[in-house]
Write a structure and sequence with these properties.
- This protein is α/β, with parallel strands linked by helices and about 400 residues long.
- Strands 1, 2, 3, 4, 5, 6, 7, 8, 9 and 10 form a ten-stranded mixed β-sheet that branches. Strands 11-12-13-14 form a four-stranded antiparallel β-sheet.
- It starts with 6 loop residues before the first strand and ends with a helix.
Length: about 400
């Protein structure tokens, strides 16, 4: 089966401005997918994928129409100081059943990631995150998932063994998925009044990371190491405050500012480890003057800009490009080793594998902040070190 079987090409007539695009516009720079695109000699870096599926987007019917509204705004943005190699694959239309749509997205993500092409998914409901995640099932690698969302989406799933789920329960589906290839989950921007105490206890029990909106507001750089650890990201547009992004039936007054959302996406683009990202829950029916469509387009632009400015300083090769710092804790139970890149000044922390860990590797490298180093220098164990170690056991 060819990937082209899953897609309907973009109808350029409906989104192209009357006078066409300038040579610098993304609309002139982005190639349209053809059946032989993946076999062509020209390297593809990024693939744009629309998914027109909203049947299980709770209380947000109409978000299936999002992809072309975002494209219209994205294509009008100017290319940065680099030569993009981006192909727009078009839209995955709803299957006969929602599981058909999931299968199509899963297959596309898997094939693209195998070919070292990053899919940018424009949904649709956030339940599509589960299909995005399943794309990694056969790749024999652990997944570090980051979700930018005001909720945890841990509602009970009513679909049993079916792969079907909803935008409010997909995370439960991921946590219970067999085989389990999820290593870490991190939430960015949860709002406490939307979260049950039981949900917070689940995060604590599983040693997952949850970062409250208030802890990130005005200090968005704290999110950078969290995003740098992601292999896939799901971004719920409802995590942005409604005054900046009203284009959803579930928009709420509080959330990230527009510029913070763009910064998060630029961090995602910088991440050498990231292999897919999805933008979900935008609903054109609730948008005003195309503001949310424009913001999502700008977020994608910032992701692309980050991608083409990657420092390629992970993993640690060559070692001459890094500085090693060793610290001792008060009770000498562990020596904590930190690594700093000379290229980017970014920090990582080495967490040793326990006896049951990897035979081929002696330690796991986790992105961290300079503040984690300062904590270790003061003699205290960084919380990130401990939570990571517990997951390695």
């Amino acid at each position: 089966m060819s990937l082209s079987d899953f897609f309907t090409p973009v109808d350029l007539k409906t989104i192209t401005p009357k006078n066409g695009y300038y040579a610098s516009h993304m609309g002139d720079r982005i190639e349209q997918y053809a059946a032989d695109s993946l076999d062509a000699e020209q390297k593809i870096d990024i693939a744009i994928i629309g998914v027109m599926e909203d049947r299980n987007a709770i209380d947000n019917s109409g978000c299936a129409l999002a992809p072309d509204y975002v494209r219209e705004k994205l294509y009008l943005l100017n290319e940065g100081n680099y030569n993009t190699r981006i192909v727009d694959f078009g839209n995955i239309k709803p299957g006969a059943t929602i599981t058909d749509t999931y299968f199509a997205l899963k297959t596309v993500v898997e094939e693209l990631v195998k070919k070292d092409i990053i899919p940018i998914i424009i949904g649709g409901g956030q339940d599509l995150t589960y299909a995005q995640y399943m794309g990694y099932e056969n790749l024999e690698q652990r997944v570090d998932l980051v979700v930018i969302d005001s909720h945890f989406d841990l509602d009970d799933d009513a679909f049993g063994d079916s792969i079907e789920t909803t935008s409010q329960s997909y995370l439960s589906k991921i946590f219970l998925h067999e085989p389990n290839f999820l290593f870490n989950y991190s939430n960015l921007g949860y709002q406490t009044y939307f979260i049950s105490q039981a949900g917070l206890r689940v995060m604590e029990k599983l040693f997952f990371d949850a970062h409250r909106l208030g802890a990130l507001s005005g200090n968005i750089a704290v999110a950078e190491p969290v995003i740098r650890n992601a292999s896939m990201i799901s971004f719920d547009v409802n995590a942005i405050r409604s005054s900046d992004a009203m284009g959803s039936a579930n928009a709420t007054p509080n959330g990230f500012y527009a510029e913070e959302a763009c910064q998060l996406c630029r961090y995602a683009g910088f991440n050498d480890k990231l292999t897919s990202i999805g933008f979900y829950e935008f609903n054109p029916a609730y948008d005003s003057n195309g503001q949310t469509a424009t913001l999502v387009a700008q977020m994608i632009w910032y992701f692309i800009d980050g991608f083409y400015n990657r420092k390629k300083d992970f993993p640690l090769n060559p070692k001459s490009q890094y500085l090693i710092y060793k610290t001792s804790l008060k009770h000498d139970e562990h020596e904590v080793v930190f690594v700093k890149s000379k290229k980017s000044d970014r920090w990582w922390m080495q967490v040793p594998y326990p006896n049951t860990g990897s035979i081929n590797e002696r330690f796991h490298l986790v992105p961290c902040q300079y503040d984690d180093y300062k904590t270790a220098v003061s003699g205290e164990m960084p919380d990130l070190w401990w939570r990571t170690y517990q997951k390695l056991i």
